Amino acid sequence: RRVTRVHHLAQMKAEGEKWSMLTAYDYSTARLFDEAEIPVLLVGDSAANVVLGYDTTIPISSDELIPLARAVVRGAPHALVVADLPFGSYEAGPQQALATAVRFFKEAGAHAVKLEGGERVADQIATLTGAGIPVMAHIGFTPQSVNGLGGFRVQGRGDAADQLIADAIAVQEAGAFAVVMEMVPADLAGQITRKLTIPTVGIGAGHETDAQVLVWQDMAGFTHGKTARFVKRFADVGGELRGAAARYADEVRRGVFPGPEHSY
Ligand code: KIV
Ligand code: NA
User: Fold this and answer.
1) 140 Rama sector, left if φ>0, alpha if ψ -120 to 50, beta otherwise
2) Which of 36, 160, 182, 252 is deepest in the core (most CB within 10 A)?
3) 45 Cα to the center of ligand 1, angstroms
């Protein structure tokens, strides 16, 4: 089984082969997803939500994300590991973005970084790619800008479609190797996918993108409360784990566990 690196994703687009990306935040799940042959793992700043319990991705820092990225790299010998640059770590300009991305490369061993924004971060993308750091862009609904966007809303509707197309072209021209499109109308995502030479990765962007991404806790039924429309639950890991914990506690209470077979 081959290792996935950025040029393979370009190759897959050329061959019309769709691929998937999942988030991962630790060694154990990274191992499982690598064994499942998920070609790209994202150490998302969604760790702020699903690992640290915040309402938004805004509070998480590089100091918090880097150890998670390092663990995912250790757990996934085949996957391309992409790490999110957190809010506040790249907006000031290309030099700030470079300093942050270098940390994710040197301290975590990430293979690529992802940052949010289109035209407004084109300079950052150009500087990183110029330094040999592959960049995945992220346009449409960008969670770090939730306050500016006025909530969790579909982007690129109506007149905003032209700006989304301009953002997609800008990140491609700046050197991004792929672009995530989050919560955009399926037709528009398809149109952008056909227009771009780099792969598009959809989340709430319909089925015409070159790839898909989901937060693993969402797709495996491990998140609390209501999930977004774009989430499909492929398993009920939360229910399984809750059940295992309850059965363990019950057996301890009843003196059933540990049995002789677990004892020395
Ligand atoms: O942080 C994240 O999980 C993401 C994906 C949902 C694209 O950015
Ligand atoms: Na993210």
Assistant:
1) left
2) 182
3) 7
